[in-house]
Amino acid sequence: MVQPAQEPVEAAFFDLDKTVIAKAAMLAFGPRLQQEGLLNRWLVVRALWGQIVFRYLGADEGRMQKMRETALRIAVGWDKERISALVDNALTEVIDPLVYAEALELMESHRDAGRRVYLVSASPEEIVLPLARHLGVDDAIATRARVDADGCYTGEVEFYSAGVHKVEAIEREQALHDLDLEHSFAYSDSITDLPMLETVGHPVAVNPDRALLKEAEARGWEIRTFENPRPLREGSIAAPKPAVVGAGALGLGLAAGGALLWRTRKAPPKRRWPF
Question: Is 96 assigned a catalytic role?
Answer without folding.
Answer: no
